[in-house]
Design goal:
- This protein has about 160 residues and is an alpha/beta fold.
- About 30% of the residues lie in helices and about 25% in strands.
- The protein has 5 helices and 8 strands, in the order βαβαβββαβαββα.
- Strands 4-3-5-2-6-7-1-8 form an 8-stranded parallel sheet, sandwiched between helices.
- Strand 6, helix 4 and strand 7 form a beta-alpha-beta unit.
- Helix 1 packs across helix 2.
- It starts with a strand and ends with a helix.
Length: about 160
């Protein structure tokens, strides 16, 4: 199952995906999840939020991470949630790990058919994939879309 959600900045895309994980873990307590982000700062932010919102082991996989409160680069250890900065995606592909769900934040970065990162992501085994972005270039076939005006009106 593959879904694409377009939501404006600030409406809680991270909160949504963490709640999907939390809910899914109730039925699948041994499941593994992967979040892919394009930047180190976003990976560190997601790791901090995951620690606050979820009571599960988290691995932040990136080169040059400054976050001190999460595990980094321990690929021999299998965590419930792995947050991977796209520049380190080779490590995920090499592990060959299967995931129950893969979340791609800022997914507009992989829309280009020639994207090397996109090619690598397609090699990762996952039952479900949710792509999230505020700014998809191609909005055809979106499974859910909220525009900024609707978000403001909704409060």
């Amino acid at each position: 199952e593959r879904l694409r959600f377009q939501l404006p900045c600030g409406v809680g895309k991270s909160f949504i995906l963490f709640n999907i994980i939390r809910t899914d873990l109730k039925e699948h307590p041994n499941a593994k999840y992967l979040i892919i982000v394009p930047w180190i700062a976003l990976g560190e932010q997601m790791a901090r939020q995951a620690k606050q919102l979820l009571d599960i082991p988290v691995l932040l996989l990136c080169s040059g991470c400054n976050e001190k409160n999460v595990k980094k680069h321990k690929s021999s250890q299998i965590e419930t949630l792995t947050i991977c900065v796209s520049g380190s995606i080779d490590k995920i592909v090499e592990k060959g790990q299967s995931y129950r769900s893969m979340f791609i934040d800022e997914a507009h970065h992989i829309e280009n058919e020639d994207s090397i990162t996109r090619e690598k992501i397609q090699q990762i085994k996952s039952d479900k994939v949710l792509q999230l972005s505020a700014t998809f270039k191609n909005t055809e076939g979106l499974d859910y879309q909220m525009n900024l005006r609707d978000a403001i009106d909704a409060g």
